[in-house]
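Re-run requested by the PI after the first attempt was lost when the workstation crashed. Everything re-entered from the original request form. Ligand of interest: GDP-alpha-D-glucose.
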Amino acid sequence: MIEAIEAGGIRMQPVSLSHREVDAFYHCFSNRTIWPLYHDAIHAPEFDESWWDAYVRVNARFARSIAENANHGDSVWIHDYHLQLVPAMLRELKPGLRIGIFLHIPFPPRELFGWLPWRARIAEGLLGADVIGFQTESDAANFMTAALTFTNARTGSDGALSVYDRRVRIDSFPISIDFDEFSSGASDSAVKRAAESIRRKVGPERRILLGVDRLDYTKGIDLRLRAFAHALHAGSLSVENCVLIQVAVPSREPVPEYARMRDSIERLVGRINGEHAVPGRVAVHYFRRSLPRKELLAYYLAADAMIVTPVRDGMNLVAKEYVACRNDESGVLVLSETAGAAQELREAILVNPRDISGTSDAIVRAAKMPATEAAARMIALREHIRSHDVHRWADGFLGALCE
Ligand code: GDG
């Protein structure tokens, strides 16, 4: 067993995995089976018995490690789709714990979940928890239906599920951000100076549209680029008055689908700039790297509009971070209706990201929105996120777990 690590008053107990396990458990089963399936099968999920075996083995190792480190009566909070079997495994090893699990990604409709050869095992794995948390009510409802279909769980009297006389609460706990941290970070004078410098460099008369995403096929970066190109073609926007800055953070590079997607996005950026750039003015600035936090805040501050167009997203924190940084109440958020955040952020301009001309119209509207309308929307968005921050999320989940 690897030694525990102490950091910031927290003791972390590593769980070691071999390179082969990282490949089969993480890159393959987690990110080529579960990730695409749970995001509405945007890409065909792959099903492979040996990946599943690695997933079971690694989940069992996490469960054992928790059982060795937790005391009777402790609360355990498990996170995300990589560890869906841990709740039931842990309950078996150590029945006296309170167990919660939170899924950061969507939970698919029963028809899609039913594709999984191991659907009953996964649903039963999750049902080992006392509380199963999802980002949205529809994710929670999807799980409820899947559990009733593929396991022996039955509806309990109070809307919870009943599993062999044990009560399992299924609920939504929309995750959020530390509003105060982003808001005060954005009022830092170095961040403000960096934002002014970005504006000066791209041309102070130009509207800045911003995209910030992991390079992931769920994030709709290609659709956003096509919608922006549509506006340039139509003449509703031009490189003289507008620029799109896309920050694309490399992610999951060993997974073949990600390499293909990156190539196609980069070709698209080249094509748009090839068609629309003029001397000193490109249409799209594309940064394939992760920015330090302060630089990211400077981009949030410099941007007149944030364009968030995932085809499917559990929540999307970038949308919330942008809003928290807009202390002067300027700026417009364009947001996919298929992101969990759209359930809360109703004052954003909501779009169907697959509707290229509709998204293009929304981008133009955001770029040209009168300051009074933008402020009214931004004030309402900020109020919501300020009162629904990450502390409320954590307290809500842990409160439910300790009930
Ligand atoms: C999963 C779910 C759910 C991005 N670029 C840079 C950077 N980031 C940070 C952002 C934000 C985070 O990464 C991305 O969070 P998202 O929520 O947008 O997306 P996922 O990574 O897919 O997260 C998602 C989330 O879990 C939480 O439950 O909302 O639906 O898919 O915090 O700021 N940070 C820095 N430089 C960058 O260039 N420093």
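Saved to the shared folder this time. Residues 49-69 form the longest helix (21 residues).
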